[in-house]
Each structure stands twice: as C-alpha cells, then as structure tokens.
C-alpha cells in the first residue's frame, strides 16, 4: 500500500504562498482532530499509517472540511469562517456595522462612499467617506498587510483552498482503504460536494481563481470567476451522479453519521438521506446562477440597469433554470448542512465563532454592530422582531453607518420563547446554515416566479417562508404589482436569510452596492445621523463587486501568460 509522507515545516504567515503550502493544510486537519484520531506521528501523517480504515478516513474527511475549511487561518477576529469571512459579507450587505478600532478592516470594509440621511436637506445630512472601500482593498492587499491582519481578501481564499486540498487528498487516497463500493461512493460524494461548495464561495466573491484538481500541486493559470462557477457545478454534478448510484443505504448512512460532527447532528443538521442531499445540490446550483447575475431592483424600479458591472443580467432562461432547480430543491423539514458548537474541541466558538454569536450582547461592547437596515426589513408586529432590543441604548459609531439603537438578544440566555432564534452564545444552541436551506430555496423560487410574471405564485412562497419562521404577519395579497412584490421579496430575503453569508451578494445583484452614478444605490434607508432617526436615507455604497485575488497568492504564485486577469478591471 502506497503511503503519503508529508514532511511539514512551519513558516510565518506572511511568507507562505497558499497553494505551495498544501502540505501544511493537510497537517491541520490532523492537528485539529487529534483528540479523535490516533495519529502515530502528528508531524508526519500518512494514509498508510494513520488513515487506514473507514473510520480513519471519515475522521480525516471530516477534519478537512470543518477544520481546514471552516476554521483554518481565522484566528484574527473570532475563530472561524462564520465570524470573519462571513463577517465581511454581512458588513458589505449592511446587516452589521463595524465597531471602533481596526479589527481586520471591519471598521472600513462596510462603510459606504456616501450617504444622505435626509435627501430633502442634503446640505446638513450628508456623510462622505474619505477612505472608500476600493482604496482599502487595494492598499491593504499585500502579504505584509495580511501578516498584521489588515488584508480582508486573504481569509475566504485561504479557507476554501484548504478545503479543496483536503478533498483532493481524500479522493486520491481512498483506493488504499478497504471499503464497500457504496461506502466509497459516499466519501466521493462528500468530497465532490464540498469542492463544489468551495468553488462556489470563491467564484461568487473573487474576480479570478485557481482550479486545483490534484493535491500539493502548483497551479499558476488563473481562471475567470465564471470558470470557477462552472467548476463548482461540475463537482456538484459529480456529487449528484455518485449519490444516485448508491444502492446500500445502510453503508451510506453509516459513513454519513461519521462525517458530520456529533454536535451538528441536531435540529435540521441530522445526516441527510441521498434524496435530501440531491435536493441541496439543486438548490446550490440555483444559488450559483442567481448570485452571479444581476437582477437590478433599485429605488423600487424592477427595470433598473447597472452601467458598470462585472456580471451580466439574468436572462429568461436563467430564471427558468432557477425555477426548475428549486422545484427539486430543499423541501420543508428536510435535513441540510448546518453547524453547531460543542463544549470542547469545537470547530467554532459559541461566543465569538460566528457573526450572530458575536452580536448577541450589548451593542456597547460587541465587535460587530447590528445595523438599522437589518431591523427595518421586518414589518411592524413581526414576531421575529423580539430578537432585537433597544434596552442597551444607542451605540454612536465613528463611521456613522454603524450607529445603532439595537442589540441582538441572546434568546437562550434570556429564556425567551421565540419563533426563530437569531443569536445566542449558549453552547450548541445556535444553528448555522452552512449550505442551502428550505427558506433560501423558496425565496429563490419566489423571485424567479415574480420575475417570470407569476407574481401571485411568488408572493405565496414569501408568505410560506414567513409562516415557517413564525413571523405571524398578515399574508400578502397575490395582486401586488411587480414593484410591490419585489419590495417584499427583498425584505424577506434579508430578514429570513440573515447571518448566512448571502446578504452582500443579494445587495450586489439587486444593484444596491453599485455607485449611484452607475445606476445603483440604496434608497428608503433608516439612518441615525446627528442624534436623529431618518427613515428615507440614500446610501451610495460603491463597493467592489468582485474582489481581486489576494496578493499572498499572486506574489508567490505569479499568473501564467494565459491566465485570466486577477484584478477587477471595473475598479
């Protein structure tokens, strides 16, 4: 049996090219899971010596996802993918604001170029940002800035390529382990799914990236974001075809029970059946379409257009594809991929391991601040509003857009009975949706129906999601206009899918994060300015729509002559 011997040497972060150090990424999954996996020599792990059974492979494959993918390199602010990389998404989606200080550029990445709190009196209510986000991204995209925790572009890239490398190693070494065909298919589907997930996360955020099919391999041909999404779908299709060929459900279930961390096997995070997993794949493919096309809805105008963007608008065939996929997507009550904390050896911390948990305290002390724009997405009387409190007073931020009256309630600690718990710091009580969910599937389907002239059908799905989350608000009428239906759709996506790493992508595709001069902007916003609450503010975010490739990669792994551009040409 061939053994894979890895001689690991530690390097400082600012001298470590990402793809070149794939061996280091391999080690981390063992180090993180060493309490569960009997590693004979943690400094030189081998498949022949350490991962030589189904149980051993399951522990490796689990560690490669939950530790390499969702924990590695995120110790600067919080301690996981859900606290820092997703934190940038929620900042740019204006669901949260940064605090005061300079934690990982969280005080700068979500600050718009400009806002007017009261358009009827712009001379006294205008805020102008002297350090726009684009300049922050470009000036701090260096290895030196990464070393001092100032390069926001670094973290998601690092996590997802760590995940991809771990999956490649598992796929390459499965043949050395004795198992049934259906057990092998389960492991293969696991790796294909997570590679599909990782390429989707990369292609939906970065302007270009690398397709790495073999472990510990140097790849210097950068491909476009569109090609990354194609690669994501290719792996998702491989996962689907592999799952469809599994006959022995007992073998499948036995492996799945070992692949998902025990603390995650609760609520809707129980191991999925093959049918449930196929539904998640369809929803994920629909997400890939929707999040990487424009569907502008600016200032109530469903016919708005953006003159300067890195992506093209949704077409009729795109909407049709979303409908077909979501009709076979995640169903109500089905199990999906989720994450929960444990009392020890957890891949994210219950207190600071996610944006939601970090928010679950007084706004006077939290790193992230709960945005006024998040709270305004709920209708008066919505039971979900009980997740927010003004009892801690107003936080007055130095960037103005993070000034807020609200804090997120730790519902479990407070002993509150809420239809949906948005935040808590209690161990194991916060369910993080890692992949697609029922609500996301239904709201994608709703938007596609509304945009395909089935407004009544789309509105019915919005009502269904509100019922599912216990909002207890009056049902919307099926006779809404297109603009009215889209207003409700945008509100419900931001409310129902909060803290799931999707908000920035939604604001981008609706056109809101683009410059007003390009047809974008956000209107009708609640803003606190000068000690006064305004409810019809205008925000000119002008955020970079797709991020440049991190300099940590391009400096050590220069693009080949036939590479796609690694710098966003529109900024």
Description:
The chain has 571 residues and is of the alpha+beta class. Helices cover 38% and strands 8% of the residues. The chain has helices at residues 22-32, 54-69, 85-92, 122-125, 133-139, 143-147, 154-173, 181-203, 225-244, 249-259, 274-291, 316-327, 355-359, 372-375, 438-451, 455-468, 482-496, 503-509, 551-554, and strands at 96-98, 114-116, 126-128, 208-210, 222-224, 338-339, 368-370, 388-389, 407-408, 432-433, 522-529, 532-540. The strands form 5 sheets. A 4-stranded antiparallel sheet has the order 3-2-12-11. Strands 1-7 form a two-stranded antiparallel sheet. Helix 8 crosses helix 10 (249-259) and helix 9 packs antiparallel against helix 11 (274-291). The longest helix has 23 residues, at 181-203. It is globular, with a radius of gyration of 23 Å. The chain starts with 21 loop residues before the first helix and ends in a 17-residue tail after the last helix.
Core attributes:
single chain; 571 residues; alpha+beta; globular
